Amino acid sequence: MITPTRLSYGVLAATIVLAGLLHLGAPLLVVLFSYFALRQLYFLTKRKWLALILFGIVVAAIGVAAAYFTRAAILALPDVADTSIPSASAWAQKRQIELPFTDFESLKQVVIDTLGEEAHYLRNVANFARSTAAVGWRVPNGDLAPPIRPQRTKPRARGS
To answer: Do residues 122 and 128 touch, judged by C-beta distance below 8 A?
Structure first.
């Protein structure tokens, strides 16, 4: 095998390993399928610009379809919740499980309260991170001065 081929296989192997370690499998699949689609469009059209324009149209169509189905799911959610919450509540009562909601309105309130608590928690984490990142002291003009870094000492000789 020639060197560029070995290098390309090494880069591909490193990319797959990094995608696994960093949990980036979904974006890697998107890139690989996009590359596959571009290659197929180029094979069909024999023109790079035409293949690129068609690829853009396909990506836009997928985005529009995703938005349409997301909107349809959001609009259907209240009806689904109205029919499924009573049966879920009955199932939970039969098994002696206490649910924090009994109807769609109380479910919405529980979700809003939970999201508010999570937002408060994230706000506290952000404030803590900001306070720990700003370790230092204030100089006379009010700016934050950098922290004092300990100076390295010379290593001692082994015999002493």
So the answer is: no
pLDDT in tens, 35-66: 999 999 999 999 999 999 999 999 999 999 99
Q: How many CA atoms within 13 Å lie on the side-chain side of 69?
A: 6
Residue 33: what pLDDT?
95
Q: Which uninterrupted H or E stretch holds 103?
A: none
Name 50's Cβ contacts closer than 8 Å, sequence gap at least 6.
Answer: 41
pTM as predicted: 0.54
- Cβ–Cβ under 8 Å, residues 78 and 104: yes
Q: Where are the domains of the chain?
A: 33-99, 100-134
User: What tokens does 153 get?
Assistant: 């000492």
